[in-house]
Amino acid sequence: MKRSNKLKPVVSHAKNQEQEAARVFAEAQKRVTDSEDQLHQLENFRAEYLLKYQTLSQQQGSMSKLLDYQAFLAKLNQGIGQASNTIKLCCQQRDILKQQWVQRRTRCQALESVVVKYQQDERKKESYLEQMEQEELTQQRFFLNRN
Description:
Layout: H1 3-58, H2 63-146
Helix pairs in contact: 1-2
């Protein structure tokens, strides 16, 4: 069996690992994007609520309503802080998964390069052997025709 053929299952396995790593990395990237979208929604909601709070305080609304607004704004700020922390964690995880994907991609490319080199070597060897056979046949014909 040719060396290039022996490596094909290894290359196939490496490709599968790379594709799986790419899929996991893409999912991690989506989690980052979703978390960022959620943070923007919370920030927009806080901005709207803050505007309502400011309008109510200028109109000198009831104290209990103002306190409710303040408490809700504090919870929103807490949620925004948690969303920011989630984004940081998701980004860290995504970066690790990207590194793993790049490593698997590099390994896969290296294996593919080895297979290509083996195939080139095999073709050269086959060509050389064919050439030797042709020369041998030519020599045999020459000697047969001479006699």
